[in-house]
Write the structure tokens for this entry.
Amino acid sequence: MANVDEVRLPLASSLQQVVGALLFGADHPLTVEEIRACLKSVAEADGGASETVRLFAEASPREIADALENIAKELSRLELGVEVAAINGGYRYQTQPSCGRWLRNLLKLDRPNRLSRPALETLAIVAYRQPISKSEIESVRGVVVDHILKALMELHLVRIVGRSELPGRPFLYGTTATFLDHFGLKSLNELNELDPTLQRTRLAERKAVHRKEKKRDTPEQGPGELFEAAAAPVPAPAGADGVAEILGEGLSAESAEPLFETRPEGGGE
């Protein structure tokens, strides 16, 4: 009977094979750098015993990116209902949106999870105007949003990103990595592509709104007036309701939600 320690499995024959296995076993979207770090770590543990392992460890970011692209093309060609998606700077396997109705039936999901219209509108305002305070959101929507913000935070779609320097130092809110993951966005910049008429407010401009005003030597303008000017309501982003519609489509029955990642329980172990 052979010693268990002497039994060796054949090594992967290509970088693409290894990258594909890493995507399948990962419990989160993998970045190119995470894949490189894994390849190098295995080579260090191997101690140079295998030439193949050493070659994989020397793979450049371009070579890894090419492997990911080839996997995506091959999956598309084979029409297996699975694709490689670029999410929040990383890559993962996920089922194709066109197969969603059958997956929901298999998993006994009668209907996809939906955000309410008020929640979608609030989320759209935060996404396009972040960092933004609660009072600014309420000035745009015209209603109190305490419970909606709480619900969005519980869903990990919105988080506190800091405090304003204005009097009272209110919390500032922004979207999360889960927001990008949930709506299948590579980055926040893709929000600008959802509707050509909409553009995210620049971060520097938003920070300036909440920066503490320096003391001015203008007797005709008192501190109360300065505060009112600095804290003036931010106008609603043009077509914010349209953005809510677009984001809402990310949760509709014919879209990419739910997007089921194809990996075994326990991260493939």
